[in-house]
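Field guide to reading this record: the first block holds the primary sequence, the second block holds the structure written as discrete tokens, and the final block holds curator observations. Each block starts with its own label. This record concerns Addiction module antidote protein, catalogued under organism Crenothrix polyspora.

BLOCK 1 — SEQUENCE
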Amino acid sequence: MTDKINISSLPDFDASHYLDSNQAIAEYLTAIIEEDNPALLAAALGDIARARGMTEIANAAGLTREALYKALRPNAHPRFDTIAKVCKALGVKLHVEAV
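BLOCK 2 — STRUCTURE
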């Protein structure tokens, strides 16, 4: 018989561990944008910023590290100018495509 796994004992998934290339980051952001959820986009940008280094991204975006954490936490609703600054600091662009 197999032992049951207690879900609460499993570690939390952290996407930042897998965002180790520009290609992985672009694919991740593309998938997130398709979900049409601003809070999810903020959290995804936070994952990418953690993968690249929050302090470095905060400095490049002209934000404090604490403000960046607050703006990119799960379920946050950051202003578009914050998203634009973070994207620029991360070296990524958001593209619009006709559907």
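BLOCK 3 — OBSERVATIONS
The mean pLDDT is 90.
The helical segments are 22-33, 38-52, 54-61, 65-71, 80-90.
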